[in-house]
C-alpha cells in the first residue's frame, strides 16, 4: 500500500466519523497536530479530539480537493471541511451555522501506517463562519490589560438593590478555560433564579470578574444553596485552583435618573419623571435596563 492509499484510508475514516478507525490508521506513537492542537496528540487523545468534532458537527465531512506524493513517504492533501454546528464546541453552545473551511494536511507515512499529520487551517475563518467574534488586540499596553466580556440581561428592568462582585486571579490559560466552563453553567442556573437583573463577566489577562445586579441584597444568597456555584467554591477552596480572589455584595448609595432620548425631538428625558412621555408630547421609546 503506497502513502497516497494510506492517506485516503485516513480521510475515509474521518468521513465515516469513526474516531477509533482514525486512530487505527496511525502507527504506534503517531502524532496529530493542527492549530487547535498545536502540542500534538497521540493514541486515545486523537480519538477524543475527533469525537469532540463529531459531537459539534454531526454531519462533518472532508472533500479532498487534491492529494499527492510530496517526497518519500510524505503526502500533501488539500481539503474542505464541511459541517453544521449543532453541538457544543469547546464548551460553547452550538451556533447552528454551517462551515466550509479550507485547509491542508502534510502526512508522513511509514509502511501502511501514519507517522504524523500536521494540519493547517485559519482559526479566524472558522470562528467567523460559525458567527463568532474574532478580536485582534494586545495582551497589555503599559498598565492597561485587554480582554473580553459577556453580558446576560434577562429583561428585568427593576432598579438594582444590590451588586455582587467576584474577582478571581487565575494562573494560566487552562484555569481561564476552567473558570469559563463553570461560568457558562452558572449563567444557565442564574437565568432561572428570582431577583437576578443582569450579569456581566469580564476577563483581562489573568484577572476574571463577575458583576451581578440583583433586586435586593438578600437574593445573592441563592448562589450558596447548591448548584454549580457551590461546586466551583469547593474547587476554589481545594488544593489547586486559581491564585486567589474575593467575593462581595454592594448596596448602591445612589442610582441617578434613567435617561432616554426622544426619537421625535432628540431631547434626553428622565424616563421615570416623564412617565414615558417627552415634553414635546411624543411617547418615549422603551428605556434601556438600569444595568
Structure characterization notes:
It is a single chain. Helix 5 runs antiparallel to helix 6 (227-236). This protein has 3 domains: 3-129, Roll (Nuclear Transport Factor 2, Chain: A), CATH 3.10.450; 147-250, Alpha-Beta Plaits, CATH 3.30.70.100; 256-291, no CATH class. The model has no long low-confidence stretch (mean pLDDT 93). The longest helix is centred in the middle third of the chain and has 18 residues, at 173-190. The N and C termini lie far apart (65 Å). The protein is 24% helix and 36% strand. The protein has 7 helices and 15 strands. It has 291 residues and is an alpha+beta fold. The strands form 4 sheets. It has a 6-stranded mixed beta sheet with strand order 2-1-6-5-4-3. It has a 5-stranded antiparallel beta sheet with strand order 9-11-12-10-13, with helices on one face. A two-stranded antiparallel sheet has the order 7-8.
Amino acid at each position: 500500500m503506497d502513502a497516497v492509499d494510506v492517506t485516503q484510508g485516513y480521510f475515509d475514516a474521518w468521513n465515516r466519523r469513526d474516531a477509533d478507525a482514525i486512530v487505527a490508521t496511525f502507527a504506534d506513537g503517531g502524532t496529530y497536530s493542527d492549530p487547535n492542537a498545536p502540542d500534538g496528540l497521540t493514541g486515545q487523545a486523537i480519538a477524543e479530539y475527533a469525537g469532540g468534532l463529531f459531537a459539534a458537527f454531526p454531519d462533518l465531512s472532508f472533500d479532498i480537493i487534491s492529494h499527492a506524493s510530496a517526497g518519500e513517504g510524505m503526502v500533501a492533501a488539500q481539503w474542505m471541511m464541511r459541517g453544521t454546528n449543532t453541538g457544543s464546541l469547546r464548551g460553547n453552545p452550538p451556533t447552528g451555522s454551517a462551515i466550509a473551511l479550507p485547509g491542508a494536511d502534510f502526512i508522513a507515512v511509514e509502511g501502511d501506517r501514519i507517522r504524523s499529520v500536521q494540519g493547517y487551517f485559519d482559526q479566524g475563518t472558522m470562528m467567523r463562519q460559525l458567527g463568532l467574534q474574532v478580536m485582534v488586540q494586545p495582551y497589555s499596553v503599559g498598565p492597561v490589560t485587554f480582554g473580553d466580556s459577556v453580558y446576560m440581561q434577562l429583561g428585568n428592568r427593576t432598579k438594582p438593590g444590590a451588586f455582587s462582585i467576584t474577582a478571581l486571579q487565575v494562573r494560566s490559560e487552562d484555569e481561564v478555560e476552567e473558570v469559563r466552563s463553570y461560568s457558562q453553567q452558572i449563567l444557565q442556573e442564574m437565568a432561572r433564579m428570582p431577583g437576578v437583573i443582569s450579569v456581566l463577566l469580564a476577563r483581562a489577562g489573568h484577572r476574571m470578574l463577575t458583576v451581578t445586579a440583583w433586586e435586593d441584597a438578600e437574593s445573592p444568597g441563592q448562589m450558596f444553596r447548591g448548584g454549580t456555584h457551590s461546586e466551583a467554591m469547593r474547587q476554589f477552596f481545594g488544593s489547586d485552583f486559581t491564585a486567589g480572589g474575593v467575593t462581595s455584595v454592594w448596596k448602591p448609595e445612589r442610582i441617578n435618573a434613567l435617561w432616554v432620548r426622544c426619537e421625535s425631538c432628540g431631547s434626553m428625558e428622565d424616563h421615570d419623571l416623564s412617565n414615558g412621555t417627552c415634553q414635546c408630547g411624543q411617547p418615549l421609546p422603551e428605556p434601556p435596563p438600569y444595568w
